[in-house]
């Protein structure tokens, strides 16, 4: 379970660094002198279009947390490989990737040392995970297969 915890912790740190950057940009663009409260930031992160790009990472983190809580899925090597593949795919986009996450992530990765360090921590945490061997399949499909193999 420590691999799951290490990855979850590294992803939370990355998410926090990106959220700080998105908050700072939001405040700068609007000329807000006072820091946003935690409640305001949560509302923006979940509802404001300027933060929409960050939701793909939030959703992936929620999927990974759900898989970690499922003992069968957490122990399945195919599921673990799919998790690594999903994280790698999101955080290492192709150069021509036009998704909003890819564009914003690349910018923050190059401009912000905290994001760069958090990215490195995620990559380090992934070293213990098996590499995906099959075509990309959703994490939910892999978890379902793991449960069917064990009769759950």
Concise summary:
With 152 residues, the chain is mainly α.
Describe the structure.
Helix 3 (55-69) runs antiparallel to helix 5. The two termini are 20 Å apart. This protein is 73% helix and 0% strand. The model has no long low-confidence stretch (mean pLDDT 89). It is elongated, with a radius of gyration of 17 Å. It has 152 residues and is an all-alpha fold.
Helix content: over 70%
Largest β sheet strand count, sense and barrel closure: none
Domains, number: 1
Query: Whole-number average pLDDT?
Result: 89
What Rg, in angstroms, do the CA atoms define?
17 Å
Query: Proportion of β residues?
Result: under 5%
**What gross morphology would you assign?**
elongated
Poorly predicted tracts of residues? none
Number of strands: 0
Count helical runs.
8
List the keywords:
single chain, 152 residues, mainly alpha, 8 helices
Which helices and strands, and how do they pair?
Elements: H1 2-30, H2 38-47, H3 55-69, H4 71-75, H5 77-91, H6 100-111, H7 113-126, H8 139-149
């Amino acid at each position: 379970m420590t691999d799951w915890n290490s990855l979850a912790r590294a992803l939370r740190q990355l998410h926090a660094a990106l959220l700080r950057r998105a908050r700072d940009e939001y405040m700068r663009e609007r000329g807000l002198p006072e820091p946003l409260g935690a409640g305001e930031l949560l509302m923006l992160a979940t509802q404001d279009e300027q933060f929409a790009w960050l939701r793909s990472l939030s959703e992936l983190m929620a999927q990974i947390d759900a898989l970690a809580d499922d003992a069968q899925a957490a122990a399945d090597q195919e599921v673990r490989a799919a998790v690594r593949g999903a994280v790698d795919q999101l955080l290492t986009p192709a150069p021509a990737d036009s998704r909003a996450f890819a564009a914003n992530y690349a910018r923050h990765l190059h401009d912000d040392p905290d994001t760069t360090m958090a990215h490195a921590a995620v990559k380090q945490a992934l070293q213990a995970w098996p590499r995906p061997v099959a075509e990309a399949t959703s994490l939910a499909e892999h978890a379902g297969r793991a449960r069917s193999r064990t009769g759950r």
